[in-house]
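User: I'm putting together notes for a lab meeting next week and I want to include a structural view of one of the chains we've been expressing. I don't have a solved structure, so I'd like a prediction I can at least talk through. The sequence is below, exactly as it appears in our construct file.
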Amino acid sequence: MVSLADIQAAESRIFSHIIRTPVVHSPTISEMTGANVYLKLETLQKAGSFKVRGATNKILSYPDKTGELGVVAASAGNHAQGVAVAAHSAGIPATIVMPEWSAITKQEATRSYGAEVIIHGQTLEESIEKAREIAGKGNIFIHPYDDEAVIAGQGTIALEILHDLPATDLIVVPVGGGGLIAGIATAAKAIKPEITIIGAQAGVCPSAGESLRHGSPCRVMAGKTIADGIRVAETGILTLPLIQRYVDRHVLASEEDIADAMLLLLERKHVIAEGAGAVPLAALMNNSIDVPSGSNVVLVISGGNVESALLFRIIRQSLARQGRLMRFSLLLDDQPGTLARILTTIAQEKGNILHIHHLQGGSDIPVLMTRVTIELETRGWDHISAIKNVLADAGYEIRME
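Assistant: Thanks for the context. Below is the predicted structure for the 401-residue chain, given as structure tokens.
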């Protein structure tokens, strides 16, 4: 079982190969929760996530065993890039097996770090099986979470947190297979036994919670999630005992919670976090975690590798849920001045127009009319209600979309 000594040895081994990421205070989130909330920004780590820590420790722990074939790993993205970066730094080849649903940007990023990428498997577990098959040829297999050297490498995050903020009362950690939280909890509890460690997981893939409930690794049906980095159907054999021993609570966050947390990090701290990285904040903001007023809370923002197109969709949907986007359509007479009049009405209510789309000739559109779809930036639901009322008073019949 991984110990504090193993994690301290990992820190000495990898310190010159990784970035020592900051612990940053968030006044906004602190005010919203009543606690002193800090962010451990692994988004600033090499390859954009914490994974390079464990991969580097694994490779440097066995310098004479990698050989010409190098290493092989399986990952949906972040572990892939972490292994690729670590292998490149060590001057050895890397082969990465990625599931078919892994983001294209993460596939290409992994290739850009010099690794050979093989796309295989509907689940991460199927990709791992393929990677183990390749390892049978002589490659060193680096498991994404169920490996003592990997766990120890991830645990170095706790050493940095408690060095920078010794008064930390609570750490919230994303949970997939459990390697990150197992390492962090082991180190943190050894240094400060009274500290609270909470694991946060996507609600559509509650593998850790189910494993804790059954007392052994339990496979769940992993639903689609924007937190793809922690979409792991079964907690690790090595990680679960550490989680059982050192983690105090396990909480869940919905897809909407995660999206809102991503938007909050972007708007208030200018931090781009992937879904998995935003899960600790999502769990904090959905009131799954009770935090004493004035306590020091650290959220491990584990990674920032998110597709631009997905980020755009997440932001739009989150804004719409918060009443900060209004989209509607209406029929207008197809003659000069009609559009200008409705835009003037909207402007009087301080609605900021983002997009306008005209459609003529549709099956439900009279010949002498056009359907106009308008999208506005709004301040909230009260603002939307005010705009709807003004438009209704002006004689416009709108259809919300």
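A couple of points you could mention at the meeting. The radius of gyration is 24 Å. Residues 148-164 form the longest helix (17 residues).

User: Perfect, that's what I needed.
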